[in-house]
Amino acid sequence: MNLILHLLLDAAVIFGLAYLMPQVDVKNFGTAVLIALLLGLLNFFVGWLIRFPLNLVTFFLLTGIVRIIVTAILLKLIDKVMDSFTIVGFWPALVIALAVAVAGTLIDRSAPTQEMVESGYVVTVLSHLRLT
């Protein structure tokens, strides 16, 4: 469920920024979902290969900044592969990467933990539906 939420949120951020920024062009929301899926897969399979040497150079002090830069590089790579997605320049890719990172952080921080659910602090939707 969290993966689907992240994919849809990333797609919404990419599609929204494409609407606001003239340097970015996304054909439709389906394309934005495909971009978010490719970005997640590339970050999982290839991103660590790029991040690890950069983190070694910075002595792991700039891990967050390195992650955002690598995400921007992967967005430019997706731009080269897909015809229905265009980013003109590196700065717009960096802005999108930063927005995707901030949105993901907000979602991760607002999601209840298992301990919160077990303690009764957070009422789950299922238990709420059973009560009514």
From the structure above, extract its key features.
132 residues; 5% strand; 6 helices; mainly alpha; Phage_holin_4_2; two-stranded antiparallel sheet; transmembrane helix
Please describe what this structure looks like.
It is a single chain. The protein is mostly helical and 132 residues long. The protein contains 6 helices and 2 strands. Strands 1-2 form a two-stranded antiparallel sheet. The chain is globular.
Query: Helix segment count?
Result: 6
Q: Strands across the major sheet, in which order?
A: 1-2
| Rounded Rg | 17 Å
Model regions low in confidence, pLDDT < 50 over at least 5 residues: none
Shape summary: globular
How many β strands by DSSP? 2
Helix content: over 70%
Give the overall average pLDDT.
88
Estimated share of beta-strand residues: under 5%
Question: Care to give the gist of this entry?
Answer:
The chain has 132 residues and is mostly helical. The protein is 77% helix and 5% strand.
SSE arrangement:
Layout: H1 2-20, E1 24-26, H2 29-57, H3 63-81, E2 85-87, H4 90-110, H5 114-119, H6 125-131
Pfam families: Phage_holin_4_2
InterPro entries: Phage_holin_4_2 (IPR007165)
Organism: Spirosoma endophyticum
